[in-house]
Amino acid sequence: MTDKVKVATVSLAGCFGCHMSLLDIDERLAELVERVTFDRSPFTDKKILGECDIGIVEGGVCNAENVEVLREFRRRCRTLVAMGACAINGGVPAMRNSFSVRECIGESYVRGIGVEDPQVPDDPELPLLLDQVHPVHEVVRIDYFLPGCPPPADTIWAFFTALLEGRDPTYSYRQIHYD
Amino acid sequence: MTPRGAQTPVTPSDPGDSLLQALVRRQWTHGGIDEIAMAEIAGRYGVSVGEVRGVVHFYAFLDDASGVTHDIRVSDNIVDRMAGSAELMALLARETGLSPGESRGPARLSFTSCIGLSDQGPSLLVNGLAMARVDAGRAAQIAERVRRGESVSRWPASWFTIEDNVRLPGRLLRGAFAPGEALGRARRIGSAALLDELEASGLRGRGGAGFPTARKWRLCAAAPGAHRVVVCNADEGEPGTFKDRVLLANHADRLLEGMAVCAAATGADIGLVYLRGEYRNLLDGLEGAISRLRAAGVIGDGFDVHVHLGAGAYICGEESALIESLEGHRGVPRIRPPFPVTRGYRGHPTVVNNVETFIAAAMVALNGPGWLREEGTPQSAGTRLLSVSGDCASPGIYEVPFGISIAEVLERCEARDTRAVQVGGPAGSLVPATRFDHRISHEDYSTGGSFMVFDDSRDLLDVVTNFTRFFTHESCGFCTPCRVGGALLGKRLDKIAGGGGTRVDVETMRQFAGVMRSASHCGLGQTASNPVMDLIEYFPEAIDARLCSMDYAPAFDLDAALREARELTGRDDPRAHLDRSEA
Amino acid sequence: MSVLIVDGREIEFEPPATIIEACNKAGVYLPHLCWRPDFSPHGSCRVCTVRANGREVAACITAAEDGMRVENTADDIVEKRKTLLSMLFVEGNHVCPACEKSGNCQLQAVAYYHGVTAPTLTYFYPPRPLDASHPDVVIDLNRCILCELCVRASRQSDGKNVFSIGGRGIDAHLVVNSETGRLGDSELDIDDRAAHICPVGAILPRRGAFQTPIGRRKYDIDPIDVAGDASEGET
Ligand SMILES: Cc1cc2nc3c(=O)[nH]c(=O)nc-3n(C[C@H](O)[C@H](O)[C@H](O)COP(=O)(O)O)c2cc1C
Ligand code: SF4
Ligand code: SF4
Ligand code: SF4
User: B263-303 pLDDT, tens per residue?
Assistant: First the structure.
């Protein structure tokens, strides 16, 4: 048990699609679980992040909480991986970057269709929005990138097997996709 | 391989005119070019409105709305900054109520690239006319008149006087002759002998690249073509250079005669001077010289000269972009080869030379090759006009023999405690004190003449950031490495200057520089990373002192990125902030 | 016949030819974006950068010479190309999962070919417009890489002049030559080559989107050195 590789995963400004793809490695999952244990992750109910070997981040950085979680991952994970288009370049959430925060909030909470009781939420429990959505590599150092929306299960598998064998991951042509 | 521009008509209708010149005239007469004017001019010149828009938006001095009555542009060269241009800008903004960079309304205030007055800054352009040594008192007077809406034509003429500041004249500046003397001798000895003499003189181009002038003229003479063209490059855009300003103001007759000599040697019938828009105040003098030389028969008969005005684009100093601009287009460098000598203006074989080169050529035509050889080094014959500015007691023009050491120049201009000299402008080299024994020559530090001095009170990171921003602003945007690489370099420099840079950023800048140097389409992109790379190599402490201790820092200011949301929600609690240092 | 030596392999060519023309004829793939065999060379994307006789040049605008040694796959050359590709990605807004061109896109394809997992430079996120004024064609400038293929196609194939470039530096952008600046008021016709030539998803004919599902598109099947340039008219 103790020599298993410890992995943590998180979804920031993403859609959990990448996590679904991770589960998509099917029967190889069994093989994976032989060799890794999951720390904090949507797959477990651990809320506190421990010291990990590998951290996998889905989604871009859109608010202050994302920044804090991402930093925590960087502090605790020896190897940090950006998984998927949103983590890599902001993805679909970054399409809001051509609007100001005022416009976005206004559309969602003030003027938008179906809004009742229009007001800007100001509860200190809520994380504040950054003025733009950013890829994770612009906030912390990232060691590896897994492209795709979501990354194909094969790409994820190629990545894990390489890392578990102590190699730098390489991908075949079909394993690199941006869509 | 059909280059751009090759399809333009082969018979020039009027070499003195182009779409760009029409736009420049319209800008003067109507304070800008609105959509109606664009459509009208497009019709007149047989191009689409979209193309006209493309041209208007390329040149910094053209506005796409009419009715600008007061257009103030403060020179943004680092030497002007050192002379107080930022304070000047702040004062003007305060006193006029204008916001810098705002492009609406009849009165406007903005920064512009070096306007060629580094020896007498801070300086600015008002409706294209240069004003030097603008102190606080003068700035207040300017603001007053802008507020009153008083026409610039009624401002005191004395405000627009420009000093020559010739500190050390040599054989080129002193040499004088009667109109027609040099051309007369050139004609007497014939073009073959003239070209031989020019070759023997060792004259090389003074615009920066140092190409042998005789070889260029021979190539043009040998190229087939119904017309041949002689172009004088008076774009003088390299920040810190102003020697052509002085030559154009005082030696235009000899310049024009040098062009006529070139025409005699190459068989050219069309002559064009491309005068940078910043030197519009020199236009009347130049036109006067043209009239004089026409009257004297030096030009006008078989070879005539017309002046084109630039409109605020450094790239138009690059010879093929300059030719595009002469043809009225956006100043995008052409694919080379073919070089202008075989296919230049409107497809004709074209010689492009610098102002100083033509004057030196005229002197050789008059005096024979020995005249140049008496000074300089075997590889670099003659003298070189240096435009000296920055931290020294006597900024101005120094005519020095090639081979002079940087230290000697510093002594001449009375510079003290010099930390670095930028030789050749931002596209040249940042030279540390350990290399002041090096020489100004083609074989050592070659230069277009800019010589900017920085003493040990100066922050060289500031200097280099200013230069990098200059290139980003002036990139024509055609090719990927320069267009994007330059902007990326600027982002990293800002990050370092703001205290958020790390080693990784320095390495990334190296990566960008490597790509920009080797993959850019023209000299601008190929040299745009020189300042940064020289700083890294010779002044690592200027960067190291600013790096933060972390091995990584975010690409942007996290806390500032929350500002808008803080304002919207009115929150200022601890969770409404992000700390940069806590990674 | 003259000979070019590309990464040690000799190929024959008929001068005059550029390096890329010589390679293309001989079936040697040189990555490129702004070059097409039937248009005048442009030299703006710089992705075809190679080392020829020791000097780095753009293969599309450099004449091939007899005996010239060309390095196309040297590590440092490939690294530079990857940086150039990354620059093109971060300069615009490329949200591939939301792009009709994905899988048929040449920018993607060249990046895949060179194994770029992610463009890791600083993103610009520029605000860029979309023009949907034309009944048959949409322009989304978020994805334009300024290759000027549409500019050339309109002028050189269609005998029109629908596109130009405006602005300069990082603000350079495609402009439409019409009174209003809108595509709908231009002379562009759906049958024009300019409507189909865009190698990325910036100019898209309407109603063609997603006919071939993601995963079964051109570059999903074969890499670009096998599949060739982005097909005209395929979204
Ligand atoms: C970005 C760029 C800007 C240039 N600006 C100037 C200029 O302002 N004046 C000039 O004489 N040459 C300039 N040059 C050099 C010209 O391309 C050309 O080499 C020169 O005018 C040739 O004249 P010469 O042989 O007399 O030096 C520039 C080159 C580049 C790449
Ligand atoms: S290097 Fe810069 S200025 Fe020169 S062509 Fe490229 S983008 Fe234009
Ligand atoms: S144009 Fe190509 S690279 Fe850009 S978003 Fe579309 S598929 Fe992706
Ligand atoms: S719209 Fe497409 S074809 Fe036209 S310049 Fe942009 S990327 Fe090239």
Answer: 999 999 999 999 999 999 999 999 999 999 999 999 999 99
What is each CA distance from B477 to B315, B345, B462, in whole angstroms? Answer: 10, 22, 24
Angle between helices A153-164 and A28-35 (to 10 degrees): 30
Q: What is the pTM of this model?
A: 0.96
For chain B, give the mean pLDDT.
95
Q: Indicate which CATH number applies to the domain containing C205.
A: 3.30.70.20
**Helices and strands (H, E) in chain B, number of each type:** 24, 14
State which amino acid sits at residue B25: R
Mutate which of B320, B342, B480 to test chain C, going by most C C-beta atoms within 10 A? B480
CA B363 to mean position of chain CA atoms: 25
pLDDT digits (tens, 9 = 90+) for B203-245: 999 998 999 999 999 999 999 999 999 999 999 999 999 999 9
- Give me the amino acid identity at C203: I
Q: Evaluate whether residue C233 is within a structural domain.
A: no
Gap from CA of C32 to ligand 4 centroid (Å):
14
Model confidence over B440-467: pLDDT tens digits? Answer: 999 999 999 999 999 999 999 999 999 9
Say yes or no: CB of residue C174 within 6 Å of ligand 4. yes
Residue nearest to atom 19 of ligand 1 (CA): B209
Quick one: C99 and C36 in the same domain?
no
Distance CA(B331)–CA(B312), nearest Å, equals 10
Same domain, C11 and C50: yes
Q: Which segments of chain C are extended strands (E)?
A: 2-6, 9-13, 49-52, 55-58, 68-71, 130-131, 137-140, 163-166, 173-176, 203-205
Q: C68: domain range? A: 2-73
User: What domain count does chain C have?
Assistant: 2
ipTM over 0.95: yes
For residues B12 and B525, give the distance between their C-alpha atoms in angstroms, rounded to a whole number. Answer: 32
Domains along chain A with CATH numbers: 5-94+129-171 (3.40.50.700)
Task: Count the residues in chain B.
Answer: 583
Minimal-distance CA residue of chain C relative to B471: C169
CATH number for the domain that contains residue C54: 3.10.20.740
Question: Of C210 and A47, which is predicted with more confidence?
Answer: A47
On whether both C38 and C148 belong to a single domain, the answer is no
Q: Are residues C45 and C151 in the same domain?
A: no
CB C42 within 8 A of CB C33: no
Within 8 A by CB and 6+ apart from A48, the residues are A40
> What is the distance in angstroms between the CA of the first residue and the CA of the last residue of chain C?
39
* Residues in chain A whose Cβ is within 8 Å of chain C: 82, 85, 88-92, 94-95, 97-98, 132, 134-135, 137-138, 142, 144-147, 149, 170-171, 173-174, 176-179
* Strand B70-75 with B107-112, pairing: parallel
C59 and C124, same domain (yes or no): no
- The CA distance from A55 to the nearest CA of chain C, in Å, is 18
Token readout for B189 is: 């000895």
Min Cα distance A1 → chain B (Å) is 31
